[in-house]
Amino acid sequence: MSMNPQGRPSRPTASGGAAVDTHSGSHGLRQATRLLFDSGAADRTGVDLPDPPKVKKRIGNLARKAPIGLPGLSEPQALRHYVRLSQKNYAIDLGLYPLGSCTMKHNPRLNEKVARMPGFIDVHPLQPQSTVQGAIELMHELGRWLSALTGMPSVALSPKAGAHGELCGMLAIRGALIARGEEKTRRRVLVPESAHGTNPATAVQCGFTVDEIGAAKDGRVDLEELTSKLGPDLAGIMLTNPNTCGLFERDIKTIADLVHESGGYFYCDGANFNAIVGRVRPGDLGVDAMHINLHKTFSTPHGGGGPGAGPTVFSEALAPFAPVPRVEKTKDGFALVEHEADVDGDPFGRLCAFHGQMGMFTRALTYMMSHGADGLKQVAEDSVLNANYVLAKLKDVMTPAFPGACMHEALFDDRFLKDTGVSTLDFAKAMIDEGYHPMTMYFPLVVHGAMLIAPTETESKKALDRFTATLRFLAEAAIAGDTDRFAAAPRLAPMRRLDETQAARNPVLRWSPSADKALEPAE
Amino acid sequence: MSVHYTKDHEWIRVDGDVGTVGISKHAAEQLGDVVFVELPDVGKSAAKGGEIAVVESVKAASEVYAPVAGEVTEVNTVLTDAPETVNADPEGDGWFYKLKIADAGELKELMDADAYAKHLESEG
């Protein structure tokens, strides 16, 4: 069997529900939250609607005879339900959010103001284009910025998230191979073992086979292994730069040249673009396609606030295969060109019904224009500086996975926890008790017990000092043998460790009236 | 009856020309709590080393390979409702499927229990 020796332990060491039992189920002023089914009643409503007029019955005996039994809610009930749920959520607006590979930066309120302007928010994708010229111009302008920042001539705005952008890029590569008549012979895609899981999944989804390349000792692509895997059956490579170990792939130009000489294409995963935006243009490195997570690099909300957006840029070689719709400047204004016959080249098709995430386009362009070219460059510099500050502050108590400086995220392994009885998972849970959202853990898979921290440029030196002081305290506590602190963590969260095994084996996905009648409806 | 192991952590217990196949105790421990097992259809012919089943734990989903070529004659339907059997008794009640062995010669390429134990040590 294929076995992944990495990953978090699945057995909870201390499981249970709430930290402390109370009579009401609430804690402090944090309210217990029940299902709407449990709090509502069939005879209650939050709106006063007129009785429906008498209409001729047209559905015969299909008409419902018994009440449907859906819970009605008053307005305060509905409002409280969602506010209570939102209080259980952690958000970038609450504090530092160090998830590696996620770029959880601040979302400026200016973005929100602009996104709520009626010309952007009150439009419908089926409106005549003449009535939404401003919105289409905004898309065109966003495309121009993305082209300029990446040095790539063509952009598809419609992909709705990173993995969707990957699909867009790989389908364009497949389109190019079909045009060359080589789609049957070039089937193999190289993917480094440190890649995001979506990379191999995308390649397979597009009909390719995945060939893994190992990491060299310094955490970068093993060039020798890569060279040995080139050949006439190569479709391309999918590479993240900076990679998921937080390191810049120094040999990227050589890798691009080797892949091109071999007849393949170079897909770059743009998840970590935040580290190089404004400083490096991926087009200059030989990239043929790259998605850009607007929700990471360009500060559109994610992590529960979504949706994402993953526009994909293309080199000259792949531009003809970019999907429709395409945003074009015409002599009369701006146009969304919907039909494959009406555009240049040979589009592989389309990725979604409409034109992408308009609300994210507005926010991302606002972010770009308010920062300007110099501001975006500083974003990259500060995000790298902050990550290196975290690395420098912790490297004597925690164990960096690789020597030397990092890019925008600092990666540690679990060697410092060896023989302490504390795992990476325990360490992360103890961070919750201290008021910090855990970092990304057990990823990338090439690093044992990985802890990947991306502070982003958002955080001040003071905030990073407090954060690293807490991590130092926890690391020293683990090494000193204070295992109770970790085994019982989180002690202060609304819920403690959950039984993931039970949840996976016996998921309860439907509410039924008989379940848990003991609960009094919460008002 | 003899038991053979693959380097990919499958075992096969041979009785005449029928082999019972599962994953090793070591593999079950590494996977953690198994939550789902996808079994092959009876009658499916397996190639040696080909994907034949999928085992999913809280941690990861893993393909299970056929230790030798043959035709599936029976599957352990207990695992459908009680995947935890794989953790409880991986090399006994937690078997995955039975297979009519096409070429008994292929068994010679597998390891016995001692050689498998040594293989695990070398894997670290």
Characterization of the model:
- The complex is a heterodimer of chains A (523) and B (124).
- By secondary structure, chain A is α/β, with parallel strands linked by helices.
- Chain A has helices at residues 36-39, 75-88, 109-115, 118-121, 133-150, 162-179, 198-205, 223-228, 252-261, 294-297, 358-394, 424-433, 461-479, 484-487, 500-505, and strands at residues 154-156, 188-192, 209-213, 234-240, 265-269, 289-291, 312-314, 326-330, 333-337, 399-400, 410-413, 440-441, 451-453.
- Chain A contains 15 helices and 13 strands.
- In chain A, the strands form 3 sheets. Chain A has a 7-stranded mixed sheet, sandwiched between helices. A 4-stranded antiparallel sheet of chain A has the order 10-11-13-12.
- In chain A, helix 3 (109-115) runs antiparallel to helix 11, helix 5 packs parallel to helix 11 and helix 11 packs across helix 13.
- Mean pLDDT of chain A is 92; it is low at 516-523.
- By secondary structure, chain B is of the alpha+beta class.
- Chain B has 4 helices and 9 strands.
- In chain B, strand 6 and strand 7 form a beta hairpin.
- The chains are: A alpha/beta (523), B alpha+beta (124).
- Chains A and B meet through helix 15 of A and helix 1 and strand 7 of B.
